[in-house]
Amino acid sequence: MVSRAVVSLTALAVLFTLTSCTSANVPLATAGQPPVLQWVATWTAALENAASSGANPGGSEQTFRFVVLPTTAGAQERVHFSNLLGKTPVTIGAARLSAAEGAGPAIDTSRDGALTFNGSSSITLAPGQETVSDPVQISYQYGEELAVSVYLKGSFGALVENSSEFQSNFATNSGGGNTTTDPTGSSFTQTTVGEWFMITAVDVYGPYQGTVAVFGSSSVVGHNSDYGNTNSYPVFNVQVPGQISDRPSDWLARQLRAAGYAMGVANAGATGDPAGEDGVTASGLSAIAGVDRMQHDVLSLAGIKAVVIYFGGVDLRGDCVPAANVEASLTNMVQQAQKAGVRVILATIPPSEYCTSSSADLVPSADNPYAGDLNPGPENPGSTQRRMVNNWIRSSGAALPGVVAIADFDAVMAYPAHPDFLIPNYVAGDNFHPNGPSYGIQSAAIPLSSILGK
């Protein structure tokens, strides 16, 4: 990793005291421990894979503009780039951080700066290598988006990626060259909804209380969080255009801010990831188990103080493993966090987790939408194992060293009439992910006072 510029703590204290926009951008906390000048993670994207696909074919002489929504305000930033899972070298020929403007690829040129790497505008990342830029000063308000523009010089293969799902990102055609300074974004002729490439974190420096991570799979990524809640299961809800800020990390950031905290919230979700190793993770193609991601995606984050661990659905639904397997994986993650001095909040698993290898009459269908429910039964075996895991989390899991609280997502999401199903209007476009508003209800079950303690 390249060296980082050293900035005087005294000089930064003066900057945050005297810069007129900063007092509005970075509010002093009124809850929990007092803020101190430090780096925190204001936005993150966990590594998923670097698999070649139609959306990730590689290219040559191409510029990308990625849009991110920070979880804090800020005035000084640095950006992390990764080729950790890549198979070929990648050269960043130029990169910039800017305030985004509008819903397209335009940027605010009055809040725009070149990113350098140990003073150089370019860096080549070998397979397995990561780097972080030198600090740049861009002031932005909470709720504003940032744009990371990256010119990849020469030819490159499939890139390290994380699913952005509903966030629009932009690219030039392959061969389009360096357009990182394009203010209007007219050179970005390709709109990609689905991936962030290479960028894994944006850190900010200032008076903050630290970083809290939400760690899990697709329900942490916020799959279907762009869906509304006007319909009730068995009628599925539909997408809401422009609803891009209802991921669990977004909701937690709003809730922390409203309660007087000044913390970065890291989204450490990766779609399809189980808590423990399985056949998919063993192939190394498209998923990494939670037990193997904890160190990189959570414990190495700037200012990390606490983590909400929310895993098990993929294991129970797709792999159909027994509860004991999930409990062992959760214990492993807790032990890693506890060793690093990071506080743990364990989340229970909400419905619906139907073992997909069960007989058809135990899996919901159009003819029998509540098939496999405990009431009236027979229950899907995945649901049985889920209740066992949740009972363990509320008892033995809660007593593990390092666990400071439980976020009982199951208690606030389960439908009392059919306890193996989500409350009907909480369902999104499938039968196991919440919609955007109900991700907020779920997030409200996280006990904020336990994140930092006293």
Entry summary:
The protein has 454 residues and is an alpha+beta fold. It has 12 helices and 18 strands.
How would you describe what is shown here?
There is one protein chain. By secondary structure, this protein is of the alpha+beta class. It is built from 12 helices and 18 strands. A hairpin with a 6-residue loop joins strand 4 and strand 5. Helix 4 packs across helix 11 and helix 8 packs parallel to helix 9 (381-394). The longest helix is centred in the last third of the chain and has 17 residues, at 323-339. 52% of the residues are buried.
State the CATH architecture of the largest domain.
Answer: 3-Layer(aba) Sandwich
Give me the secondary-structure category.
Answer: alpha+beta
Low-confidence stretches: 1-27
Please provide the ordered H/E string of secondary-structure elements: HHEEEEEEEEEEEEHHEHHEHHEHEHEEHH
At the fourth CATH level, what is the homologous superfamily of the largest domain?
A: SGNH hydrolase
> Could you please say which CATH topology of the largest domain applies here?
Rossmann fold
How much is the average pLDDT? 92
Task: Give me the number of helical elements.
Answer: 12
Largest sheet: 7 strands, antiparallel
Rg from Cα: 22 Å
The count of strands amounts to 18
User: How many domains, in number, for the residues?
Assistant: 2
Strand content: 25-35%
CATH class of the largest domain: Alpha Beta
Q: What is the helical fraction, as a range of percent?
A: 10-25%
Distance between the termini: 35 Å
Form type: globular
